[in-house]
Specification:
Elements (H helix, E strand, L loop, with lengths): L5 H4 L10 H10 L3 E5 L4 E3 L7 E7 L1 E7 L6 E7 L2 E3 L14 E4 L3 E7 H10 L1 H20 L9 H11 L8 E4 L2 H8 L3 H13 L4 E3 L2 E4 L2 H6 L2
Helix pairs in contact: 3-4, 6-7
């Protein structure tokens, strides 16, 4: 595919540190394909089986996660290079927990599960990279269980948004009603409305009908 070379692989999280001879062996012996996703095309879908590892090396993606009761949804913009949920490939329930859509044209290398298993058993650097990535994911998830979530309504709103983000920076969008937001953080609707309007006056968020747009999460977090 245009713009793809073996050197491109070294920019991907799981291939960093792997030598050119090993990359060449991967190209000839491990099943994979290079795919191009048009803007607006669905790449992976929440609750669907995860049977392949998608490594996006160019483009911008939109990640959307819906709550189990479908009462709210969280959107996050992600920039390649990025591995799409390698933690969903194995385990008791190998399914995606997010939906990924190409926001611009996205180019990606797609490796079926058996190819990932082959890489894990034959390439030590790949194995260490994958273990490190999964360990980081587990640490972040468990660390939030001990995070101080108390404070005023503004802080609890910010903590909620921060906790649902993959990266603590960049644009985020939360689709939720005031009532449902109040139920999520145990606050009256009036408190939610007043706190969100204060944040909007500070130019930290933009309020739409049942939608909260956070242009730069890092600036919102700094207010805590």
């Amino acid at each position: 595919m245009e713009n793809f070379t073996l050197d491109t692989l070294t920019d991907l999280p799981l291939f960093q540190g792997i030598g050119k001879s090993e990359l060449a062996r991967f190209a000839t012996s491990v099943p994979h394909k290079i795919k191009r996703y048009a803007a607006g095309e669905r790449i992976a879908e929440q609750d669907h089986p995860c049977q392949q590892l998608v490594l996006a090396f160019r483009g911008v993606l939109q990640m959307c996660t819906r709550s189990d009761n479908n009462r709210f949804a969280f959107h996050e913009r992600l920039q390649a290079p990025i591995a799409l949920q390698p933690e969903a490939l194995y385990g008791i329930s190998p399914r995606y927990t997010h939906t990924f859509t190409a926001q611009t044209e996205v180019q990606a290398i797609v490796i079926p599960k058996e190819g990932v298993t082959q890489l894990f058993s034959s390439l030590e650097v790949f194995r260490l990279n994958l273990i490190n990535l999964l360990s980081t994911f587990i640490y972040r998830q468990s660390r939030w269980l001990w995070h101080n979530l108390s404070g005023d309504t503004e802080k609890r709103i910010i903590n909620f948004i921060h906790a649902h983000s993959i990266h603590p920076a960049g644009e985020k969008i939360l689709d939720i009603s005031m009532e449902d937001f109040g139920l999520q953080i145990n606050e009256p609707r009036m408190n939610i409305s007043q706190a969100l309007n204060r944040l909007q006056k500070k130019n930290l968020i933009l309020l739409k009908r049942k939608r909260i747009i956070i242009p730069a999460l890092e600036k919102l977090i700094q207010t805590c």
